[in-house]
Amino acid sequence: MVKPLYNLPEPHTDDAEAIRHWLDSLETQYPVDERACLARACEVLAHCRGEPRPDTGETPIRHGLSTADILARLRMDHETLVAALLKGCLDWSGGELTEAARLEDFGPGIARMVDDLTRIDQLANVEAVIAAKDQPQHEENLRRLLLGIAEDVRVVLVVLAERVHLMRAIKDLEPERRTKIARDTQRVYAPLANRLGIWQIKWELEDLSLRYLQPEEYRRIARLLAERREEREHYIAEVMATLREKFDELGIGAEITGRPKHIYSIWKKMQRKNVDIADIFDLRAVRILVDSVADCYAALGVVHGLWRHIPKEFDDYIATPKGNFYQSLHTAVEGPEAKALEVQIRTHAMHQHAEFGVAAHWAYKEAKGHDAEFQRRVVWMRQWLETKNEDEAAGERLERFKAEFEPAHIYVLTPQSKVVELPKGATPLDFAYAIHSEIGNRCRGAKVNDRIVPLNHTLHSGDTVEILTQKNTAPSRDWLSPHHGYLTTARARNRVRQWFKQQDFDKHLHEGRGLLERELARLGIADKPHLDEIALRFNFKRGDDVLAAIGRGDLAVGQVARQVGEPKAEEAKEREREPEIKPRPPRHHKPGAGSDVVIEGVDDLMTHMAPCCKPVPDDPIIGFVTRGRGVTIHRRDCGNIRHLGAEERERLIEAHWADRSGPSHYPVDLLVVAADRKGLLRDVSSIFADADVDVIGVETHSEKSTDTASMRFTIEVEDNAHLSRLMTKLQQLPEVHQVRRFH
User: Fold this and answer.
1) Which intervals carry biased composition (Basic and acidic residues) (predicted)?
2) Could you tell me the domains of the chain?
3) Is the pTM value of this prediction over 0.90?
C-alpha cells in the first residue's frame, strides 16, 4: 500500500505550529542561510488567508508546506522549495504577492519560477484534453506544454510534487471527481515524471491512480504481495549488502542499486502477459553496473553462485541487443528466503544509453513522432536532476541549459483546452490556420488570455487563444507580406495563397478559354483541343487548370496552342512502322520551293528534321536515308549518328542548308542549370519574351541536395546565330551555371 510520509504535524495542528515544525525538520538538510530564506518564504505564506482548497479542504499554508516537504524529500535545492511556498500565495486572493516583492526579497531566479508556476496554474483544466478525440496526441502535447512553459526544469518538479500531494489527499472526494483527477494523473503527470526519470514520484502517482481507478485490482495485488513495501525495501537492502561484500572479495568494482516493483507496474505486467503474480519474477530487483563487458559476465557468475537460477529466466541482451540497441544481462534467481529476485547487469556505458539514449523507455515507447531537439532537451533535464546534488557547478549548468536549449516550439491552448503545437514566434493568425483553414480565412481578431491582441502578436507557451471570426470576410493580401509579421508558418501562408488562387479561378478560367480559342483561330487550327491530355504535359491535373494558368499568365497561350492537333506518341510510332512505297530517287537535285535542305546528288526527296538533335540553319548536318520516310536530317555531332553500325552508316548522305527566301522557325531544346532561387523561371521567361521566342515545351527539376534547378525548354529559333544570342543572354542571368543545347 502507498503510505505518504511528511515532516509535518497532524492536520489539526494550527498553521503557525506546522510552519515551525517543518522548518525545524530541515536543520540537517539545508545550511543556515538557506533555512533563513525558507523562513522568509514561510512568513509570506503565513499571510495567506484564502478559502480552503476545494479538492482537499486544506488551507493555503498547509498545501504549500506539504508540496515543499515532498520536494525536500527529493533533495531539491532551497530555491525550488521557496518557489513552491510562494506559488501557494498566488492561488488565493487573500495573499497577494507582487512582482516587485518577489524580485526584491527572493531574487530573479525564484521570481521566474513563480511566474512560470502561475502561468501553468492558469491553464484550462486537462479534463477536456482527456476527452479529446485524438487523445494520445493531446496528452503528449500537454506534457510538452508543461515542459515548454517551464524555462527552469525545477518548475516541473513543483508541479509534480503538487500532483503527488493532491493524489494523497483526495481519498474523501466524491467518486466521480476523484476518478477524473486520477485519470489525468495516470495519463499526463505520471508519464511526465517517467520522462524526467523521477522514479519516486512516478511510482507513487501510478500506484495512487490505480488505487482510485481500479480499487479491487489494487487491493487484490496488495494482498497477493503479502508484505508491505517497507519490508520489500529492507529485503532489497540485505541483498545489495550481500552482493557488495562478495564483489569486494573478488575485486570487482560495481555500483549496485535496487527497488521493489510497485503495484501499478505489477498490474501492468500481469495485464500485458496475461499471467498471475506467481509468474512475475521481478517483484524485487537489483541492478549492477560494472566497468567492462567481462565484468558483466563475472558478476553474473557471482549472482548464480550465491542463489539458484530460475530456469528459462535468463536473457543475454549484450550478445544479442534489442532492436533499440539496448544491452544488458537479465536473470532471475531464488534469493534469500526463496523469494524471486530479478538481477540486471550492465556496464556504465550501457546504462547511460538505456537511460538517456534511444533505448530509454520514454523515448522508445512514449514519444509520438520524432522530435530530436525536444528529446535532447529532456535528456539534459534528466541528467541535471540526477547530478544536481553531486555537482558544485549545477547552478551554472542550469543557466547554460536555459541559453542553449531554448524550445523550438510553443504549446498554446484553444478555449476548449485543446493543446496546439506551433513553431516559436507564431502569431494568432498562424494558430487560426493550424485549427482550420476556414477559421483562418474568416479571422478578424484574436484574444490571448481574454485580452484583445493584434493578429501579429507573438504567442508564448501556455497562452489560451480565441479567434474572432466573421462570416462574410476574406484574407487580406497584407497577411502575405513578411514586413507585417502576420504569418510565420509555411502552412498558413500556403492556405492564404490557395484562397486567393481559388477565388480568381473562375475569372482566369474564362479568360484563358477565350485566349486559347483566339490563338487557335489565328493559327488556323480547327482541331478540338484535348485539354486533359495537354494538362499532363504541363504537370497539371485537369484541362481547366491549363486554361486558368493561361488566364493568370502563368502559361503562354502559344505553348498550349501548338500542342493542339499533335499526334499521340503511340499513333506516331504506328505511322513510323507503316511501310511506304519508296520512289526511285532521281540522279540530280534541284531544291524545290520551300525546301530547307539540299541533298547532294538526289532530287525531289522528302526530308524532315530529326527530333533527337533538332538541327537549325547553319548547323553542320548530314542525311540518313530511312525506309519509307525519306531522309532524316541530323546534326553531324548527333549521338544517334555517332553510334551507327557499319551497315547503317552506308545509308548516310551528304546534305547542306539551302538558301532561305524568308524567315522560318525551328524547334530546339535548351538546358539551363542554375541555383534554385526565387524568381529564376520568371527571369528566364523574360529573356524569351524580350527576344520574341515561342516556348513550346518546358520541364523543370529541383535537386535539393545541391540546391540547383535544371530546366529544359523547347523553343523556336530562326537559325544558329539567333540561338547563340539567346544563349548568351541566358548565361548572363544571376546564378546561372550552364546553358547548352540538350540532345
Assistant:
1) 565-583
2) 10-122 (1.10.3210.10), 229-366 (3.30.460.10), 422-503 (3.10.20.30), 505-561 (no CATH), 569-657 (no CATH), 666-741 (3.30.70.260)
3) no
